[in-house]
Design a protein that fits this description.
Elements lengths: L15 E4 L2 E4 L2 E2 H8 L3 E5 H14 L5 E6 L6 H9 L3 E4 L2 H9 L7 E3 L6 H10 L3 E4 L2 H13 L4 E8 L21 E2 L3 H9 L4 E8 L9 H19 L6 E3 L16 H14 L6 E4 L3 H4 L3 E11 L6 E4 L8 H5 L5 E3 L9 E6 L8 E8 L6 E4 L20 E6 L2 E6 L4 H5 L9
Parallel strand pairs: 4-20, 5-6, 5-13, 6-7, 7-8, 8-9, 9-10, 9-11, 11-12, 12-13, 15-17
Antiparallel strand pairs: 1-2, 2-3, 4-14, 14-15, 14-19, 16-19, 17-18, 20-21
This protein binds ligand LLP.
Ligand LLP binds next to helix 10 and helix 11.
Length: 432
C-alpha cells in the first residue's frame, strides 16, 4: 500500500492493488487506460463482478432461484451481457431498461418489472414480449394492468410489492420499506389486494415481493422483512391464492468507507435457515441485487486540473464532476479517492476534491489527505453502481467513456459522448 494520507490508508476493494506503485485492476495498470482513453473514465473489472455474483450463487445453491440484476445500478450493455451470460435475469423499471434487456438477449421470462409508475404503453410492451413478472406497487396499478392485459387477451403475471414497514437503517433517500415511503402496498392491505388480484381476469398471481432499501449493511432488517413476508404468504395461501415465488428484492450494501456488510452467501445462509425453519425452504426465490454486484467492481479515473489552496479550504479541481458522480452531491456519499501513482516525496495536504460544474454542491470528496500535483490522475473508488447510470449532461458535459477489463485485456464499452451527441435531438428555430 502507498502512503496515501496522514491517517491510516484505507483498504482497496477486491481486484484492485498497487503493483510497483501503480494502481492496477486485474492485470492492467489504470494509468495506461487513462492515457489511452482520456479522463473522466469509468473502468470496471469483469472478475470483480463475477466474484460478487458467485457469492449469491453459492448462497442460493441447491435452491430454485433467479438472480435478477437490478440494472438501474449500471445499465451498460456489456455489463448486462456479462451478468446475463453468467446466469442472471434482469430487474427493470422502465421501457428504456426493457429495451436494454432485450438488446442483450435475455430470455424475457427472466425479466421482472419493478417501479411505482409503469405506464400503459410500458405494460403493453412488456406483455407483448412476455416478461416473467410485474411487481405491482398499488391497487390502481393492478387495475390498469388488468385492463391492459385483458385488452390484449392475456393474463399478466403479477407479484405484489409489500411494504413491510421495516427500517433498513440506511440513508433516508434510499430506504424504501418504511410505511411513509412511496413504495409497495402497506402490509395490512396486502391480503385484500391478493384476493382482488386473484379475481381479475387479466392477472395471474405468481409471487410476492419486497425491497426494503439500498446500501443495507445489517442482516436484521432482512430477517424482519422475511418474517413479515412469510406471515403474509401463509395468510394469502390460506385464502386460496397460491404463490410460486418469493422475491426479497436487493439492497445489500458494499464497503465504501469501512462498512462491513455481510457477504451475500452469509446473508443467504441466514435467510435460508429462516425459510427452512418456517417450512418455506423449497419455495422458488427471486432476488434483485444491483449495487452489491457492480459497485466495488468499478472506478472513475479523473485528472487533477488545478490546485487551489485557500485560507480556510484547499480545493483540488478535477475533470470529473457531479454530473459524472452524483452520489456525493445527492446523498453526501463517501467514495474513497486515491492517486494512481502515489507521490512518496510530496507531503500530503488536506483537500476538498471538486469538479468544474458551477455549483457549490459539486464535490466528490471532502477533507481528503492527498499528495498530488496538477496532471496527476486519481481514482474515485467503488464507482461501479449508481454513478454512470445516474450521470447527466449538466453544463453540457458529455458523459464519460467506459472500459471493461478482463484479465490483461481492456475493451471500450461506451465511447465518450460528444457535443454533437448531446444536441442530436434539439432543433434550431428558423430565422425570420
Ligand atoms: N429492486 C428495487 C425495486 C429497487 O428499487 C432497487 C434499488 C433495487 C432492486 C436494487 O437495489 P440495490 O441492490 O442496488 O441496493 N441511487 C442510490 C440507490 C438507489 C436504489 C434504488 N432502488 C445510490 O446511489 O445509493
Amino acid at each position: 500500500m502507498p502512503t496515501l494520507t496522514g491517517t491510516s490508508a484505507p483498504s482497496l476493494p477486491p481486484g484492485f492493488s498497487y503493483q510497483s506503485d501503480r494502481l492496477t485492476i486485474e492485470g492492467i495498470a489504470l494509468d495506461t487506460l487513462a492515457a489511452q482513453y482520456g479522463t473522466p473514465l469509468f473502468v470496471y473489472s469483469r472478475a470483480a463482478m463475477l466474484d460478487a455474483l458467485a457469492a449469491y450463487q453459492r448462497g442460493l445453491q441447491g435452491r430454485e432461484h433467479l438472480i435478477c440484476y437490478a440494472m438501474k445500478a449500471n445499465s451498460n450493455l456489456a455489463i448486462l451481457q456479462t451478468l446475463v451470460q453468467a446466469g442472471c435475469g434482469l430487474d427493470i423499471v422502465s421501457r428504456g431498461e426493457l429495451e436494454r434487456a432485450l438488446a442483450v438477449g435475455v430470455e424475457p421470462t427472466r425479466i421482472i418489472f419493478s417501479g411505482v409508475g409503469k405506464t400503459r404503453a410500458e405494460m403493453r410492451h412488456a406483455l407483448e414480449v412476455g416478461i416473467g413478472c410485474f411487481n405491482v406497487e398499488s391497487t390502481a396499478e393492478l387495475d390498469v394492468l388488468d385492463a391492459v392485459a385483458q385488452s390484449m387477451g392475456l393474463r399478466a403475471p403479477v407479484s405484489v410489492r409489500v411494504n413491510p414497514n421495516v427500517d433498513a437503517k440506511t440513508h433516508p433517500y434510499i430506504s424504501t420499506g418504511l410505511k411513509d415511503n412511496k413504495f409497495g402496498i402497506a402490509h395490512e392491505d396486502v391480503l385484500a389486494t391478493y384476493r382482488h388480484a386473484a379475481s381479475c381476469a387479466g392477472l395471474r398471481v405468481v409471487g410476492i415481493d419486497c425491497h426494503i432499501g439500498s446500501q443495507i449493511t445489517d442482516i436484521d432488517p432482512y430477517l424482519d422483512a422475511l418474517d413479515r413476508m412469510l406471515d403474509l404468504v401463509s395468510a394469502i395461501e390460506a385464502a386460496g391464492v397460491p404463490l410460486e415465488h418469493l422475491d426479497l428484492g436487493g439492497g445489500l450494501g458494499i464497503n465504501y468507507q469501512g462498512e462491513t456488510p455481510p457477504a451475500a452467501d452469509e446473508l443467504w445462509q441466514r435467510l435460508l435457515e429462516k425459510l427452512d425453519a418456517r417450512g418455506y425452504g423449497q419455495r422458488r426465490l427471486v432476488i434483485e441485487p444491483g449495487r452489491s454486484l457492480v459497485g466495488n467492481a468499478g472506478v472513475c479515473l479523473t485528472e487533477v486540473l488545478y490546485l487551489k489552496p485557500g485560507e480556510h479550504k484547499n480545493f483540488l479541481i478535477v475533470d470529473a464532476a457531479m454530473n459524472d458522480l452524483p452520489r456525493p452531491a445527492m446523498y453526501q456519499a463517501f467514495h474513497q479517492i486515491v492517486p494512481l501513482s502515489p507521490r512518496q516525496a510530496l507531503p500530503p495536504t488536506t483537500w476538498d476534491v471538486v469538479g468544474p460544474v458551477c455549483e457549490s454542491g459539486d464535490w466528490l470528496g471532502r477533507d481528503r489527505r492527498l499528495a498530488v500535483q496538477a496532471g496527476d490522475v486519481l481514482a474515485v473508488m467503488s464507482a461501479g453502481a449508481y454513478c454512470m447510470s445516474m450521470a447527466s449532461n449538466y453544463n453540457t458535459r458529455g458523459r464519460a467513456a467506459e472500459v471493461l477489463v478482463d484479465g490483461n485485456h481492456a475493451t471500450l464499452i461506451r465511447s465518450r459522448e460528444t457535443a454533437a451527441d448531446q444536441f442530436r435531438n434539439e432543433m434550431l428555430i428558423s430565422a425570420t
